[in-house]
Amino acid sequence: MIYAFASVLAKLSITGSAESIPHIIKGPIIEILGAIVLGGLLGVCFGYLIQKVHSKKEVLSISLAAVMICAGLANHFHFSLILSNLSLGMIFANLFLFANRRSVESFDFISLPIYAIFFVIAGAHLQIALLPTMGMLGLVYILCRTFGLIGGAFLGATISRSAPIIRKYLGLGILSQAGVAIGLAIMATREFGIMGQAGRDLALMVINTIAATTIIFEIIGPIATKFAIRRAGEIKRAR
Length: 239
What we know:
By secondary structure, this protein is mainly α. It has ten helices and no strands.
């Protein structure tokens, strides 16, 4: 949701156009609300369809169709592509628990190559020559993301009155970076890459910052997660 507003402000700063506040926020609000409504409606339809079939092949086919239809409609109506699919999954998972379990199991057969393709596409945008010029930006991003996740998890756990052990260690368990961050970075590359040299420079900076720091977080993240669940008592040291 924040990305929708931030991208509009970034585009205005590149074009230099002066827009009124209501006009600026109108587009992101429509994009966000439209994505939530679209994903929610498709999630309900998807759930009822899944309940009518039984074989794993049929479940997989309908699941893929739901994702593709959601992506196509979101792209046609200029809604948030990622938020639409997130809404679809959220509604489907919470309203149709048994059907959701069957859908997840069917996706397990094809998830590995999809993950591989996703990261290959992200890595293909990484330009090694630009890394030295973005050292400080990358460091700021790493620090802000780390403190944001740990602090946000602590604050959320405190507000919800979760156990002290969750407040202390939940943030360390979610440092790994993948999925949405990379997806948004690729979207930024597509949206800003057509806005002249300034847009292309911004797109390159975003995708390279995210891709480079993903490597760091995917090294640090699993180590921090193992430390957190061990200190939380969820696993025991092997003897």
